[in-house]
Design brief:
Radius of gyration: 17 Å
Structural class: alpha/beta
Helix content: 25-40%
Number of strands: 9
CATH architecture: 3-Layer(aba) Sandwich
CATH superfamily: Vaccinia Virus protein VP39
Shape: globular
Order of helices and strands: HHEHEHEEHHEHEEHEE
Bound molecules: S-adenosylmethionine
CATH class: Alpha Beta
Distance between the termini: 49 Å
Largest sheet: 9 strands, mixed
Number of helices: 8
Length: 244
């Protein structure tokens, strides 16, 4: 018998939420607006695209048919396998999957035209700890793991390229939507209300952001404020566009 690890439990929770028919309206709306904007602006070009936390391959199916190459980075082997099978069935031979923690990836400099980290995935990146006291506001204002990943992927962008991040705003509506989503997809929230992140017993962790916390994290990646644009998706979400 194989033992279930905390990683398995988190991966299962993530897969449940990605596959569930349940999704709070504000989260569904934010995702639809995110996708509308991405498709309108970025589909149909011969781009090299990286997708950090590509999940079951949803955005690869949209962009890979017309882009030059599409690289998915995914920590869960089970979820990555779903993306692999999906892209193979669709004949997307310009796709590749890198399975593992994206913090261990060392992408080549000036390689990608676009780097995606969508559907609130930037808020999942952290040094994993069972001690929730570790994730203070100071940690969230300069999350070392986030800084490692996005410094590297910013370097991996070509000049003229774009980094796109979808994040939760730190609003009561966003917190309520997170809790609603996790609890209705089989998870148990273990954090008290009012923190800037929500964690579950299953090991899932998702941070919300203020303008200041995003800017301070991105500044630590060497990204200057004039290159950062906040697109308001709705009451709970921003799509952040970073130009290089
Ligand atoms: C909220 S889901 C979004 C999936 C996909 N981007 C979408 O829009 O449907 C976040 C995904 O990122 C993956 N993930 C979380 N942390 C990661 C890390 N450190 N490295 C690589 N993948 C990660 C999760 O396993 C999950 O599939």
């Amino acid at each position: 018998m194989t033992r279930k690890t905390p990683r398995d439990s988190e991966d299962r929770a993530v897969l449940n939420s990605l596959e569930s028919t349940y999704c709070p309206d504000v989260i569904k709306q934010a995702r639809e607006k995110q996708d509308e904007m991405l498709v309108r602006r970025f589909r149909g070009h011969a781009y090299a695209i990286a997708d950090i936390g590509c999940g079951t391959g949803y955005h690869g199916s949209i962009f890979a048919p017309t882009c030059r190459l599409y690289h998915g980075f995914e920590i869960s082997p089970e979820i990555a396998e779903i993306a692999r099978v999906r892209w193979a069935k669709e004949g997307l031979s310009n796709t590749a999957l890198f399975v593992g923690d994206v913090a261990d990836a060392t992408p080549a400099s000036a390689f990608y035209d676009l780097v995606f980290c969508l559907y609130f995935t930037p808020g999942n990146i952290r040094d994993k700890s069972g001690d929730m006291a570790r994730y203070t506001d100071a940690y969230l204002d300069q999350n070392p793991r986030f800084v490692t990943v996005f410094s590297r992927f910013y370097r991996a962008l070509k000049t003229g390229g774009t980094l796109l991040l979808t994040i939760y705003k730190d609003t009561p509506e966003a917190e309520a939507a997170q809790i609603d989503f996790y609890e209705h997809t089989g998870q148990q929230v273990i954090t008290p209300p009012g923190l800037r992140f929500v964690a579950t017993r299953e090991g899932f962790w998702s941070a919300r952001w203020t303008r200041r916390s995003l800017l301070s994290n991105l500044n630590a990646c060497g990204i200057a404020e004039p290159d950062i644009c906040f697109h308001d998706l709705n009451a709970i979400a921003w799509l952040i566009e970073i130009g290089k």
